[in-house]
Amino acid sequence: MAKTSNKKMTFEQALGELEKIVEQVEEGKIGLEDSIDQYAQGMQLIKHCRDILEQAEKRIEVINKQAQAAPPPDQAEEG
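-> structure tokens emitted (79 positions)
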């Protein structure tokens, strides 16, 4: 697995790496020690993905609040 910093990974990249880890562990392609290392890496990837999703959720909330605060397009034209 590439040792790219999790913070530089996109959500899709991190998810792809996580899928590779799961596949390797499930298929028994790696030994116990490597499985433990991969588990630790997987947990870091999960945290990274959750952080990205939380940021996206906050952005969506801001967008929704802005949309609700703006007057409807037909009322803005009349004013």
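The helical segments are 11-26, 32-69, 73-78.
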